[in-house]
Amino acid sequence: MRILSKKALKELVLYSPQHIARLEKAGLFPKRVQLGPNRVGWVEQEILDWLERRLLQRE
What we know:
AlpA
C-alpha cells in the first residue's frame, strides 16, 4: 500500500486543495488519512479507483 502526499495527489488529480477538501466533505472523494498531528495522505489505490470511476462516467 502506498500513501500519497498532497504534492503527489496534486500530480494525479488536477484539483486545488480547497476543491479536494470540499469533495471529501461531500463524500465524493476518498478520505484523507491522518498520519500524524501535521501530516495527511491519501491511499493511492483509492485515488486510482476514483479516477477510474470518473473515466468510466464519461463514456
